[in-house]
């Protein structure tokens, strides 16, 4: 997405193209271009990734899942374990 932002900066500020024309050139939605334009007008750095973007990882839940996965019993018994059991195939 950074390349499109740089193209937008060049086309909007230096070449003075309007948003629909930029949309046709680089293929970014008009809504996104308006957002970038607004950030330029307010003086924000649009190339900087802001804090709080994306889904937060729940480290506690990830540890619990990993612990449960390690504690999971095996699905199939080994041959040694099946010979020890008193139940046979004929019962």
Number of strands: 0
Rg over CA atoms: 29 Å
Terminal-residue CA separation: 65 Å
Question: Biggest β-sheet, characterized?
Answer: none
The average pLDDT is: 81
* Secondary-structure element order, N to C: HHHHH
Specify the helix fraction band: 55-70%
Given as residue ranges, the uncertain stretches (5+ residues, pLDDT < 50) are none
Question: Strand share of the residues?
Answer: under 5%
Judging from the principal axes of the Cα atoms, what is the shape?
A: elongated
**With helices defined by DSSP (H or I, 4 residues minimum), what is the helix count?**
5
- The class by helix and strand makeup works out as mainly alpha
Characterise the protein shown here.
The structure is a single chain. By secondary structure, the chain is mainly α. It has helices at residues 2-14, 19-26, 30-42, 59-71, 79-84. It is built from five helices and no strands. It starts with a helix and ends in a 7-residue tail after the last helix.
Topology of helices and strands:
Blueprint: H1 2-14, H2 19-26, H3 30-42, H4 59-71, H5 79-84
Features of this protein?
91 residues, elongated
Short description:
By secondary structure, the chain is mainly α. It has a domain at 2-42.
